[in-house]
Design brief:
CATH topology: Aminopeptidase
Number of strands: 4
Protein name: N-acetyltransferase domain-containing protein
Radius of gyration: 14 Å
CATH class: Alpha Beta
Strand content: 25-35%
Order of helices and strands: EEEHEH
CATH superfamily: Gcn5-related N-acetyltransferase (GNAT)
Organism: Devosia yakushimensis
Number of helices: 2
Keywords: Acyltransferase, Transferase
Pfam family, one: Acetyltransf_1
InterPro entries: Acyl_CoA_acyltransferase, Bact_Acetyltransf, GNAT_dom
Oligomer: single chain
C-alpha cells in the first residue's frame, strides 16, 4: 500500500501485491481535486517499480468495463486489454 501526500493530507493511494507468479494492482484512487496532476501515474509507476524489484515480470489488474476513464488511464500507462473471463462468487446475500 502506497499513499500520496499533499502536505499532511492523503490525496491518493495504490494497493498492489505479488504472489510469486504475477503482480496485481488491486486498487488505485486519487482525490478528485488532485486528478490530472500525475498523482495516479506516479503511484502506479512506484508500485510497478517495487513489484519489479521483487522479481515480478507481469502485472494484472481488473477494471469494470463501463469505467472508460479508468481504462483510458491504464492504457496511457502502457496496459492493454487481454481476452479473459472474469469470474466471481457472492459469499453473502
Amino acid at each position: 500500500m502506497l499513499v500520496a501526500l499533499d502536505g499532511a493530507s492523503v490525496v491518493g493511494s495504490v494497493m498492489a501485491g505479488y504472489e510469486g507468479h504475477r503482480g496485481w494492482i488491486s486498487r488505485i484512487a486519487v482525490l478528485a481535486s488532485h486528478r490530472g496532476r500525475g498523482v495516479g501515474r506516479d503511484l502506479l509507476a512506484e508500485a510497478e517499480h517495487r513489484l519489479a524489484a521483487l522479481g515480478c515480470v507481469k502485472v494484472n489488474l481488473q477494471v469494470v468495463e463501463s469505467n472508460a476513464a479508468t481504462v483510458s488511464f491504464y492504457e496511457r500507462s502502457g496496459y492493454s486489454i487481454e481476452p479473459r473471463i472474469s469470474m466471481s462468487k457472492l459469499l453473502r446475500r
